Structure prediction request, 1908 residues.
Amino acid sequence: MTLKTKERYLESMRDLEADVYLLGKRVPDVTKNGFTRLALEGIGAIYDLTRDPRYRDTMTQRDGQGPFSVYCSIHRSREDLVNRVRVARFLCQRTGVCTASRCCGWDAMNALWHTTFEMDARNGTGYHRRLQRYIAKVRREDLTVAGALTDPKGARSLKPKHQPDPDVYLRIVEERKDGIVLRGAKTMIGGAVGSHEILVQPGAAFSEAERDHAVAAAVPLDADGVTQVVNRQMGDERKLEAGFDKGNVRFGSSESLVVFNDVFVPKERVFMAGETEFTGDVVSKFVLLHRMTLGGCLAGCGDVLTGAAALLAEFNGLSRQLMDRFVEMTYLSEAMYAQALGAAYQGQDTPSGAWFPDPLLANVTKTSVTRLPFEIQRLAEDVGGGMVSCMPSDRDLRSDRVGAFVDKYYRGLRDVTAEKRLRVARLLESMVFGPGKLSTLCMHGGGSPAAASLGIRQLADLESKKEMARRLAGIGD
Amino acid sequence: MTLKTKERYLESMRDLEADVYLLGKRVPDVTKNGFTRLALEGIGAIYDLTRDPRYRDTMTQRDGQGPFSVYCSIHRSREDLVNRVRVARFLCQRTGVCTASRCCGWDAMNALWHTTFEMDARNGTGYHRRLQRYIAKVRREDLTVAGALTDPKGARSLKPKHQPDPDVYLRIVEERKDGIVLRGAKTMIGGAVGSHEILVQPGAAFSEAERDHAVAAAVPLDADGVTQVVNRQMGDERKLEAGFDKGNVRFGSSESLVVFNDVFVPKERVFMAGETEFTGDVVSKFVLLHRMTLGGCLAGCGDVLTGAAALLAEFNGLSRQLMDRFVEMTYLSEAMYAQALGAAYQGQDTPSGAWFPDPLLANVTKTSVTRLPFEIQRLAEDVGGGMVSCMPSDRDLRSDRVGAFVDKYYRGLRDVTAEKRLRVARLLESMVFGPGKLSTLCMHGGGSPAAASLGIRQLADLESKKEMARRLAGIGD
Amino acid sequence: MTLKTKERYLESMRDLEADVYLLGKRVPDVTKNGFTRLALEGIGAIYDLTRDPRYRDTMTQRDGQGPFSVYCSIHRSREDLVNRVRVARFLCQRTGVCTASRCCGWDAMNALWHTTFEMDARNGTGYHRRLQRYIAKVRREDLTVAGALTDPKGARSLKPKHQPDPDVYLRIVEERKDGIVLRGAKTMIGGAVGSHEILVQPGAAFSEAERDHAVAAAVPLDADGVTQVVNRQMGDERKLEAGFDKGNVRFGSSESLVVFNDVFVPKERVFMAGETEFTGDVVSKFVLLHRMTLGGCLAGCGDVLTGAAALLAEFNGLSRQLMDRFVEMTYLSEAMYAQALGAAYQGQDTPSGAWFPDPLLANVTKTSVTRLPFEIQRLAEDVGGGMVSCMPSDRDLRSDRVGAFVDKYYRGLRDVTAEKRLRVARLLESMVFGPGKLSTLCMHGGGSPAAASLGIRQLADLESKKEMARRLAGIGD
Amino acid sequence: MTLKTKERYLESMRDLEADVYLLGKRVPDVTKNGFTRLALEGIGAIYDLTRDPRYRDTMTQRDGQGPFSVYCSIHRSREDLVNRVRVARFLCQRTGVCTASRCCGWDAMNALWHTTFEMDARNGTGYHRRLQRYIAKVRREDLTVAGALTDPKGARSLKPKHQPDPDVYLRIVEERKDGIVLRGAKTMIGGAVGSHEILVQPGAAFSEAERDHAVAAAVPLDADGVTQVVNRQMGDERKLEAGFDKGNVRFGSSESLVVFNDVFVPKERVFMAGETEFTGDVVSKFVLLHRMTLGGCLAGCGDVLTGAAALLAEFNGLSRQLMDRFVEMTYLSEAMYAQALGAAYQGQDTPSGAWFPDPLLANVTKTSVTRLPFEIQRLAEDVGGGMVSCMPSDRDLRSDRVGAFVDKYYRGLRDVTAEKRLRVARLLESMVFGPGKLSTLCMHGGGSPAAASLGIRQLADLESKKEMARRLAGIGD
Prediction:
């Protein structure tokens, strides 16, 4: 069976020896560094759960070669889209973090599945076949593939072609007979540090004059010229420590700047090269999937945060008094989930066979996702009490000098030790302010709130609504 | 074919000669009175659209006897539940009003389908067969059946058995060999004035000591002892006028107090009589359907209101400046719709064969429905401008003395006459403050916001969420 | 003493014989027509309370001639501004309605006090002296003066000078030696029907090419060529009935279109004629006062609505269960009030001696006022229950045929008759949907939400805030 | 002159040699440790600005001995309360952090001023005189005095007298002739690490059986038995680094657990000992001041955050597109400020001569403060873009290996270097997620949201509001 164990996955990441930097220093083995290890554990959870027989229907699909991870599947039905949302919620419930790399790679494969089909149909190119072969390899080797859209973009008010430095949008600097050479970067790439490969695609709709930027390709993360600079989020340092101050003691996430410093990509890994007229399409297909899926992710993280808040309230002896907050948190999480399901069920297929969510409802889900989690977080802070912003460290608890004080003064309800209370308060803290905070994934993932609004604006069909009003008001034409 | 034309429906209502009162006076012919006529036109729209070949798949089902209205169907699949939501939105888009009678009757038939099946299975009674026969008759005669839950309830802080006047909950005052005698009332009954029959069922979970109140039965609205007092809403008087001040010039809705003053109901029309242990179940099944469906209704009414606002802005020359409001209104409507779809798709079947929505998501949809439409209304008032609260009447426009002034000073953008502007402003007004206001249906339909919160509380499963948090915080047991 | 009794005020209004139209017909005596009478009672309450010794400090000021109504005073201190807000809240608590005419006249007198002073200082004109004489007369005769800014405006996307019909902004059509002739209209004029005079002033900042529109003048409402068309709001008809369905059985409000059909105004009543460079200033001074004051008005109406909701809950036996709603309603009302007080206390004087609120905080108050009352209304509907949208009329209660049913089935907690319950439910209804609804005054009074946002934008001083950020981020220049 | 320079203040803190622990280790010199130094700089800013002649009127008062810091003044007028709010906003604008110690000490001195006066009046004790002497010393020596209310509280569902460990509420374990011995702790004490003394007072209303807990006293922070455990917040570690990743590179704040391990306090420093009947009063007076003042603090921090967001948008070339967000952020900040001013101006004096804010409006301000800053933060995250959660560290920027990449790919609009952009993004990050996040001060400072709601509930005066409704509905008694 091709499905990797978590251990095998970790080994493969160690063996990859990608060029990774953290806090200005090279990370020689990503499975050893506390920070990157936690990120790998997050992705590792996918490998674990995929092999768990209880979740086989959700986490795997089959083809002639046997079962493969759902994370390298193409959505072929309404049910597949719904499952996409369910998987997102499930993973977030289990890990409390964003395991973005496999998700974004999944989105990118689906978006390119559709767009390569369309390009070939129009231009007679052979991209779709190439992509099929590439996906077959990914399935066979059970690879984690990061999906990468976002370019650094420089000055946002200037178009790509007017940027002083053209490299702020990834581009082809040379076309050779056997491949292309890439220069530039992709930024905020979730889970790159735990990925085998990166699948880049355009991050914006480019015009004819910007053809060099119209590029999609798969690049192994150990390729010559690829360098990752792992981002630093609030609280990341704690992941380098042993204690429980990191909050989520089992799983982490990561984002990176991935630099392409004149990287050669052989032809069979190139899925778009210059077809600017398809760049808008491939962006839109990617973000639709992402905007829908976020409803599942945030519901799952909302569940964990609701649980953390409820647990802390229980430890404080306040479960009953704060029940209305838990009900509201549940409402907010489920509202996002229900919207994502609605977007999935209203989905449609495409000539390529790939299914995509309803564009309007996907944008609606995304819009909710940029608002509701903030209220969930606010309620969590309300429930958590002042403690969530003001508590001693686990090192204080273990200190010879002040440990006894912490132990004495941080106890909760009978049998609730200070450590238990601090552990859950730290988890809550990390999901509100720290590297697991909901807003990291919800506000800008899949595009900004403004982009989602624009999507709704384009699909609102005000003319048909005006016509409804005209009829009822008795205004003839 | 059994499907009635609208004309035939109106005739049948005229012929029914129900005992209807409005503003303290008897309405001898409900098709003639301006107020009741508009309500009948709302229900009439269902009859019209049901016979329209374009909507056959949505609006009809078939059995051995041929096609029948979807409004007398039992939901037999996930798709049926989804269709329920779609029909609700469609009708509201077409009419701008709540055509509650057929909807609530639909809910009541489905709830009783399930509960009669369960009662018979437990007690060996024959209610389910009776109900089947009754529904067959409703289909055959294409009847509009009002569904009725809500009792007057007297002092809310007292249980039914402690009420000074036991009649404030509908009850059986006599059991005869051939039937039962009902006394009491059902209140806020949507569309009763346009219905042939009323299907009453318990409005609360009753205890053993309250068995007289555990009653479900179908009663023709012209039965001896049944009297309707039609409620008076803000702006209702305008429906008695000819002009456009009523806003929605084509359709209306209505609610009534329906009094049962010792009404005899023959046995074959009785579907529950004393089975208090099933009262909670039948209430819950009814409200689940209603709470889900409201997401469709409010989206549909939201569409019309968005259209009215967009049209008024167009007439004022402000379409571009106010675009962000229309985007937000669209977002809010679609968010409710998406949630209703989610609740439908997550639905489940029951041993009786009837399907019901996911209880948690139905309550979530209802909760959204008690909040979002108010923001839609607020935005409509923002867009509408001061005019929506301050405008002359159509009689002023037609007056010899001041008509010319109104015509001159209420013109909008080129070619937009005062009448056009006033008509759409009146429509908007009626949907925000008047009898078509969104909040009439959304706030208390299917139960209060507090009831929906309670539903979420019961289904929130905080224990499993605490367990998720415990694992990630490293708190063992 | 010059302070009029309410009776004397009503007589004076009857004697005025203004040319008033309602629902297309002339109203020969505004003290007799049920609709206009209620509006006059609202203003009459001011006369009553002004003579009440308990409120002397709040409701009156004194000059050499003795006491006069605070409604014709010029704000001469921070305390006067604060008193302005207090008076607004007090009147709304007492009447539950907007008594706009005296308020807007008050604003107009203050705005013109300032602007005439400035015009004279710059141009050597004699407007300020004229205005002083006019105000002295108003005080001496204790007149109600409506303030009027808003022009019909035609197509909003066109500037005044490009309007096909120049009359859609009030204008001087002729300048004579002894005065000017006005043509056009002012629209949505609160309380005109209960006013002796109207004080018009520019409703927008006009450019040099629009000098005819730069006009301020006081016109008696019985002047030749002045016609009022009273607007029709939802539920107005009930004011023509005897019963309690009108909700607020004691007071009403009104708005009118006031048409100036070539009205001659003698010179001593003209306070601006062509000075376009001061039009922006006079608008801004008027709206600042109005935007601040609304915080008091809406708090006062919020108080009444909170009281109505609490009373209905008491009658239903639900006071305790709904306490959180009353707390929230109170919070929202007081938040607006506190902001208005802040705007008043931060106020500043002007060279003319008149004080005006802090511009930024006045716009902030107004912005709150366009949002919070809608939540108050939503909570009132929540508390009110389905009944607020579904109840029989008072005529049903008094009907021989169905009165007993209504009486029986609408009783509440012990001793609460149906009439008591219906009366308070009708009051609540009228303040949420009817002519007393909060949103009539809050959304567009003193300008639209967009106008308030623009005000905040102009005063936000982002540069100084960026400088704060620069220092703390260690970014030098 | 007694006003200390910042340098003298820092020396005095170094000389104090309090027993301070951070991350489990003793901090031998709080002016050297990066973390504590930044906290001292925050308080140091008060010393700096107090001596700045430009701010003399705001920052100082005078008595017979000359000028003293406003932070040790008793509010003696409405203007003093307003100044309190202004000072709060000013300090937060200048430092971007909460300089809680001097604020809370200020509150505690005022609350005790009032309560000691009342105790003496009732019981003939001599507390007030003692307190006066103590305050005179604080002024003369220009001391920073932390104010301390909050006890660890153990199981919240148990009353103090039922706690298994009585020490979870600070208490007198021994009364000696010359003083008392304290045992227990005060928790979440802002700025303790930068304070000379701590002024403890009851944190709850205690009953007769809990008299040991009714204690107020001033304790030097270097007293025998006093130990501080400094809390660890998200991102605190960065304060130990040199670079700009800490966001706010100039100022910090801190909170501590302050343990009293059998600490002797001489009589002249004791201001309450056993007077349980006054414990509710002193808590209430303290929190009123705090709840009002927060409106100023959060407005000030809101200003800085708005500035940071506007600056980042400028660097990205998006100022115009995001203007509506800055307007909304400004609105929210000013709304809190206006409410605080309202609460101040409605303040009242007490027999002791000390003034306190209006209790209802102070609770209203606090309620706003638990909500609006979260929306400000959300908008800041929206404006900030994905970058705020995903950016390289300053060490990456300075790295030989990847520094050039960071420099190249993080540039903004022309002339905006990567460092400038990263600096302001880090500032924004620290104010949203990090130790300077608004919610640290706003949610639980001065009590929980539930406590503020309770305050509103007690002061809502629903009966008078019901009476208003009764009159307008025509319901007689």
Observations:
- The radius of gyration of chain C is 23 Å.
- Chain C touches chain B through 84 residues (CB under 8 Å).
- The mean pLDDT of chain C is 96.
- The longest strand of chain C covers residues 179-190.
